[in-house]
Amino acid sequence: MGSISINGVRKSFGPVHVLHNVDLDIADGEFIVLVGPSGCGKSTLLRMIAGLEEVSAGDISIAGRRVNELAPKDRDIAMVFQSYALYPHMNVAGNMSYSLRLRKAAKETIAKAVSGAAAKLGLDPLLERKPKALSGGQRQRVAMGRAIVRQPKAFLFDEPLSNLDARLREQMRAEIKKMHGDLKATSIYVTHDQIEAMTLADRIVAMHGGVIQQVGSPLDLYDRPANLFVAGFMGSPAMNLIEGSYEAGQVRFANGVSVASGDRPGLSAGSAVTLGIRPEHVAIVGEGGLAASVDLIEPTGFGIIVHTVVDGLPVKIFTQDRAVMAAGRNIRITFPSERLHLFGANGQRV
Question: What is 240-343's CATH number, 3.30.450.20, 1.20.1420.30, 3.40.50.720, 2.40.50.140?
Answer without folding.
Answer: 2.40.50.140
